[in-house]
Amino acid sequence: MVCGDGMAPLRPGAVLICIMSSLIALSGVLVPRPLMAEPLIVGIDVGAGIFQLDLLAQNIGEAAPNAQAVERHRDGIGAAGRQATAPSIKAETGFDPRSGRSEILVIQFKEAITRAYLDLSYFYAGEAESAGRNYHERGVWQAYHGARQVDRGSFVSNSNDGHFSLPVMPRAPFDRLLLSATPYISDDGVEIAPGLILTDSSDFLLRRVAYVPVMSE
């Protein structure tokens, strides 16, 4: 390793830095720069009793999301209406196979954020079976900044115990997140035929929300 340009003498402090750098390079030891931890803010944690974000929900048959439609359960939060006859937990946000519509859960952030990390419960892989084909629960997220939708995506359960981690990383900052459910979907991406199973469909509870604000990056 060569320090300086060979044209001018180095200051004493620079000589010391040069010697230390040379020793590190010769020993093959790489010293990484310090990594800053991601500044996650926990907005909701049902288990820890943290409820610092505003929530709205829209049940089947309602015209718009509202705060009164939100229901809490010991294992999570969702829409208060019962969207099918089989689910034992009414608070799940779910797809109604009879009306062909989904309940909606809305998470409202106090500032623009770049990404969110959600934990869901009661969201199962292989929850239904028909004609030898296994069907999984599936949901949809929609990210908004004000009235403008900036991105959307879907998520399919691969969980046998119902616990599911959902990272939401849209292409632009957002301040509102909508969660809904869809009909069951199979391993090969085939959505269950309408009317095949009418007693149940995809549904889930929201257990935890952590997020990264725009200004923290």
Rg over C-alpha atoms, rounded to the nearest angstrom: 25 Å
Q: Provide the structure class.
A: mainly beta
N- and C-termini, Cα separation: 35 Å
Give the rounded overall mean pLDDT: 85
**Low-pLDDT residue intervals, each spanning 5 or more residues:** 1-36
Task: Describe this protein with a few key phrases.
217 residues; mainly beta; eleven-stranded antiparallel β-sheet; 16 strands; 7% helix
Secondary structure layout:
Elements: H1 12-27, E1 41-45, E2 50-51, E3 54-58, E4 70-73, E5 76-79, E6 93-96, E7 101-102, E8 104-121, E9 128-130, E10 133-136, E11 138-145, E12 148-156, E13 164-168, E14 174-181, E15 185-186, E16 203-213
Task: Provide a descriptive summary of the structure in words.
It is built from 1 helix and 16 strands. A hairpin with a 2-residue loop joins β11 (138-145) and β12. The chain is mainly β. The protein has one helix spanning 12-27, and strands at 41-45, 50-51, 54-58, 70-73, 76-79, 93-96, 101-102, 104-121, 128-130, 133-136, 138-145, 148-156, 164-168, 174-181, 185-186, 203-213. The chain is globular and about 50 Å long. Strands 1, 2, 3, 6, 7, 8, 11, 12, 13, 14 and 16 form an 11-stranded antiparallel β-sheet that branches. It has a 3-stranded antiparallel β-sheet with strand order 9-10-15, with no helix packed on it.
